[in-house]
Design a protein that fits this description.
Structural class: alpha/beta
Number of helices: 11
Strand content: 15-25%
Order of helices and strands: EHEEHEEEEHEHEHEHEHEHEHHEH
Shape: elongated
Keywords: Transferase
Bound molecules: phosphoenolpyruvate, manganese (II) ion
Pfam families: DAHP_snth_FXD (PF18152), DAHP_synth_1 (PF00793)
Helix content: 25-40%
Largest sheet: 8 strands, parallel, barrel
CATH superfamily of the largest domain: Aldolase class I
Number of domains: 2
Organism: Chitinimonas arctica
EC number: 2.5.1.54
Protein name: 3-deoxy-7-phosphoheptulonate synthase
Length: 338
């Protein structure tokens, strides 16, 4: 951290800053300019608080030099991470399209959905058994019964499953049902106790971006998971809230480029919750792959008109197949494969 003293700072002010740096176990480096003195705090500066220094007498500003996130930062881990999900690699050359319904509804719906996901050439499946709904009166998900329908349908095709964990009390159940990838939804991105718990298990985690989360907040949320020892983290951009009301959210394509620079973690894009309309999904998917996303999380329903949740944005099995065909060409153009 760098502490900039004000031009009026006294020697006593400077001494107090130095004493505080030493008390934290760091050493000081003092640089006296013609107008100001600058003090560098040498050592692990992450635990130091800028505010704690800025409210000291004679201090003008305190600025962290290193990034607040460490384990997820690309600077300490130049190669991109590849997450292994039961032998399927996410983050490597191959792009993974994870498709399936918004929510698990019935056994038959899941069987049809799994057949459609597999037929389209996808290797992993999504589906929510616990649903974060805006209204408490809306369908909340089938719960554990949903996990069972989902696991049985996906295992027919040997596809790993991705499903959302909302409540830390269900983590043991998720482990017992051998959920392959735990999804932390947008609304829980900063549920720090939940993040700490999934940080302790040995399961890949998809961390979706909060509705209005900055990149730094999102990466700090990922850092919580990594700090617990779980490095199998996948980020998922799912659209952010802006002033625009013509569509559900704005897909932040810029975030893909930014994340690729800032972190070694793989990046997924959810075009379904971004646009909120099925007809937008192909265009947003193509943009995501072209921009460097490592995969997509796409909603597909055997019969979208009948979907219990997010009917507007679900692709049909046929549309998913067409999407996969068009993505193949984009993937090739950017040196990837599908
Ligand atoms: C979902 O993927 O089912 C979901 C609820 O998404 P989000 O958390 O991004 O809103
Ligand atoms: Mn949904």
């Amino acid at each position: 951290m760098i502490i900039v003293m004000s031009p009026q700072a006294s020697q006593a002010d400077l001494d107090a800053v130095v004493a505080k740096i030493r008390a934290a176990g760091l050493t000081e480096h003092i640089s006296r300019g013609s107008e100001r003195t600058i003090v560098g705090a040498i050592g692990d500066e992450r635990p130091l608080s800028e505010q704690a220094y800025e409210q000291m007498a004679g201090v003008e500003r305190a600025i962290h030099i290193v990034k607040p996130y460490k384990l997820v930062a690309r600077e300490g881990h130049p190669a991109g991470s590849i997450i292994d999900i039961r032998g399927i690699k996410l983050g490597g050359k191959q792009i993974q399209v994870i498709a399936g319904p918004c929510s698990v509804e019935t056994e038959a719906q899941m069987q049809l959905a799994a057949a459609g996901v597999h037929a389209a050439g996808c290797r992993m499946m999504r589906g929510g058994a616990f649903k974060p709904r805006t209204s408490p009166y809306a369908f909340q998900g089938l719960g554990v019964q949903g996990l069972e329908y989902f696991q049985a349908a996906a295992r027919e095709y040997d596809m790993p499953i991705v499903t959302e964990l909302m409540d830390v009390r269900m983590l043991d159940t998720f482990m017992a049902h051998d959920v392959d990838v735990i999804q932390i939804g947008a609304r829980n991105m900063q549920n720090f106790d939940l993040l700490k718990e999934v940080g302790r298990v040995n399961k890949p985690v998809i961390l979706k971006r909060g509705l209005s989360a900055t990149i730094a907040e999102w990466l700090m949320a990922a850092e919580y998971i990594a700090a617990g020892g779980n490095n199998n983290i996948i980020l998922c951009e799912r659209g952010i809230r802006t002033f625009e009301t013509a569509y559900r959210n704005v897909l932040d394509v810029t975030a893909i480029a930014m994340l690729k620079r800032e972190t070694h973690l793989p990046v997924l894009v959810d075009p379904s919750h971004a646009g909120g309309k099925a007809w937008m999904v192909p265009a947003l998917s193509r943009a995501a792959v072209a921009a460097g996303a490592d995969g997509l999380l796409v909603e597909m329903h055997p019969n979208p008109c009948e979907a219990w949740c997010d009917a507007d944005q679900a692709l049909t099995p046929q549309e998913l197949e067409e999407l996969m065909a068009s993505l193949r060409l984009i993937a090739q153009a950017v040196g990837r494969e599908l």
